[in-house]
Design goal:
By secondary structure, the chain is mainly α. The chain is built from 14 helices and three strands. The chain has a three-stranded antiparallel beta sheet, covered by helices on one side. α2 packs across α5 (102-121), α4 (80-99) runs antiparallel to α5 (102-121) and α9 packs antiparallel against α10 (218-226).
């Protein structure tokens, strides 16, 4: 008789730890790009629609940890093209520091991280980490010359549509640019916060995150991200209309300086998040996977 031998237990694949060179490289990048992170943090603190930048690295880290199983068993190899990308990112960073362009510094930081991964771990690792690395771009402030004309057009659009809706319900209100003139002679100024730009900029990263983790088809992912624009515009349109109605009842000062008005931005954002979840659920119902 022969005795059957049990097969040796298979070892669970582990993510290869950082070697000494990679640890030194990671520490050097964090130290060297610290001024860029601090410069971006100042923008996050000062500009309302950029305040989500604090959360972007946290979410990117969570996304990488969630998909860490994809890194197990991936081949590890040195890729010279990654070193070229890293060198180019460092050169761009130096230029950004020299001319004081925070946006260039931020993009260079993300490119340097991607280059370091590509160089030390190879193409397979870069592909596996493409989403969390790409998501970090949402922490880079949007250049003001790009966003100022957009804000202007959004304010005019929201103001014009709000007046049209109020007129449809026989509410007497006039418009001069982005200023609403009430019957009693008082006026309401539609500020940047009511233009929808904050909702658009802050809801877009959330929509991308939901699309990546909850949708498989590219078309549904794009549809979910595209839903941000109408959700943001409708939410802020309602915000303006309700402020006008409140101003008629309790006065402009009380309507615009109360706690309710101060919390309107947060309320609009929360409702926008719920609307995004609703759009995702609707897409899965009316546009199912094959």
């Amino acid at each position: 008789m022969t005795t059957a031998t049990k097969p040796a237990p298979r070892r669970a694949r582990r993510v290869p730890p950082l070697d000494a060179t990679e640890k030194l490289l990671a520490a050097s990048l964090l130290l060297g790009f610290a001024p860029a992170v601090m410069a971006m943090a100042r923008v996050w603190e000062q500009v309302d629609y950029q305040s989500h930048g604090y959360l972007v690295p946290v979410v990117a880290g969570w996304a990488m940890a969630r998909d860490v199983r994809r890194l197990r068993g991936l081949p590890v190899g040195v890729e010279p093209r990654g070193l070229a990308l890293l060198a180019g990112a460092i050169a761009a960073y130096a230029l950004g520091l020299g001319v004081g362009i925070v946006e260039l510094q931020g993009v260079a930081f993300v490119a340097a991280l991607a280059g370091a991964v590509w160089w030390r771990r190879g193409t397979a690792w870069l592909r596996a980490l493409a989403f969390p690395l790409g998501f970090l771009l949402f922490m880079v402030p949007i250049p003001e010359p790009w966003i100022t004309p957009v804000v202007l057009q959004l304010r005019l659009f929201v103001t014009e549509v709000a007046v049209a809706v109020l007129h449809a319900f026989d509410f007497a209100v006039a418009r001069e640019g982005n200023v609403l003139l009430l019957p009693g002679g008082e006026s309401l100024f539609v500020a940047d916060a009511c233009s929808g730009i904050t909702s658009i900029v802050t809801l877009t990263p959330l929509a991308v995150l939901l699309a990546y983790f909850t949708e498989k088809r590219l078309s549904r992912r794009l549809a979910l991200v595209a839903a941000v624009l109408p959700i943001a515009l409708v939410g802020n349109l309602l915000r303006v209309i309700l402020t006008v109605l409140a101003a008629r009842e309790i006065g402009v000062a009380a309507a615009t300086e109360s706690l309710l008005h101060d919390s309107a931005g947060l309320t609009t954002y929360v409702l926008g998040c719920l609307a995004l979840l609703g759009v995702g659920a609707l897409l899965r119902r009316v546009w199912p996977e094959r």
